[in-house]
Amino acid sequence: MRYVKWAFWSVLILVVGGFLHYTMPQQDIVRIVNTEVRRVDVGENKIFWAQTDVANTPTTVNRDVRFIETIRPNGKPIVYRNEDTGWGWPPYFKLDSSNLQAEASDRISSRDNPQWVVMRHYGWRNEFISIFPNAVGLRPIDGPDVTLIPWLNIVILVVFLVLILVARQMWLQFRERSIDPLVEDAGEAWDKVDAFAERKKGRLRRWFDSWKPK
Question: How far apart are the first and last CA of the chain?
């Protein structure tokens, strides 16, 4: 039973941790090298795509998607999609993907004369299932050595931890006031039933013994 308990909590932590890592904002220092619009057929991986621009048909499977191609300071490429999130989840309320595409196009630079930006995004990049992080904003910086502190993530995690502690305390108080007394009463009632059964069994045994030949 102990292994089942540990397995349950391990799976729960992995699911919650993965969900938070995917949806919480992340920041990358990159150099923009290209922006383009591609026709994408959203299929089995549609859960990792947002939606069409707000006011367009949201159920369209085949649609144009904006992409921002960038290079990290270590020379490795990373490609972002640029889609509206609208009023849905995750709650970035992004309605300006066209404006972000224009800003990204204006920041295109070469290796010899780089312009570094901080790309804020959520999501993962996975070549195997063709998913891309969704860019939600960018800002220029002086160079690739800038230290980024995820203040928003820190605040979110602290609030999340406080909510967990509050919920745990409420559950402990509820169990102490409501569940534990019921369990205790049920235990006492069972003890009484068990004692009553033992008395009846003893009487029945004595009655049978009285019929034995002496």
Answer: 53
